[in-house]
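Propose amino acids for all 211 sites.
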């Protein structure tokens, strides 16, 4: 006597619709994760860049302070300060080489970048050949607007005194300040800035030696 057997298959698989929905959800999760990681890395890079730029601005300000403090008469008898402009200053200082040599120092801006040029004396008698100046870019992303980079003060400067107005009489200058306004983020359209400033009295031109 024949027997009929019915085999019941309890195994269930994904339907095409379920598979498509699963793939779609997985794709959204992966895209969200990718965007999140990209934003995290971008923010990290921006913060690192900002820290590096801040440190560089402070180094520039400290170097300038040291150089202007050690301003001296040139080996050719030139007055310690040669030019005192809003965005360019030229002076003589013993600080760059550190061995007593009086170098000609020039800070200037070109295309939003701050440069420092150094000319060491040469020849017999010693003189400054500006054609031998060595210029180095020391700070980018300046955002000065209409603000001067350099401020000049006479011997009465007490921290609140107004700076000398242009055109500055170099014979009146006894204190010089640098004011660096730099973009926080080097990206198109960024307007957020930070400021690093500092200054020093020119020792060789100081008249109030008792203070």
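Proposal:
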């Amino acid at each position: 006597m024949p027997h009929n057997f019915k085999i019941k298959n309890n195994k269930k698989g994904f339907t095409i619709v379920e598979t498509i929905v699963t793939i779609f959800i997985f794709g959204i999760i992966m895209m969200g994760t990718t965007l999140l990681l990209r934003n995290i890395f971008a923010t990290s890079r921006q913060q690192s860049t900002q820290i590096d730029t801040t440190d560089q601005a402070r180094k520039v300000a400290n170097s300038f302070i040291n150089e202007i403090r050690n301003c001296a008469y040139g080996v050719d008898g030139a007055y310690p300060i040669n030019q005192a402009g809003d965005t360019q200053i030229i002076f003589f200082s013993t600080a760059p080489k550190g061995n007593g040599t009086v170098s000609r120092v020039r800070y200037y801006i070109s295309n939003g970048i701050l440069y420092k040029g150094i000319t060491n004396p040469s020849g017999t008698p010693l003189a400054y050949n500006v054609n031998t100046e060595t210029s180095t870019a020391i700070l980018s992303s300046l955002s000065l607007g209409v603000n001067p980079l350099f401020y000049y003060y006479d011997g009465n400067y007490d921290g609140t005194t107004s700076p000398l107005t242009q055109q500055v009489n170099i014979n009146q200058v006894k204190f010089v300040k640098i004011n660096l306004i730099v973009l926080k983020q080097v990206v198109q359209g960024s307007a957020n800035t930070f400021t690093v400033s500092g200054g020093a009295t020119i020792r060789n031109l100081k008249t109030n030696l008792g203070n």
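The mean pLDDT is 82. The longest strand covers residues 175-183.
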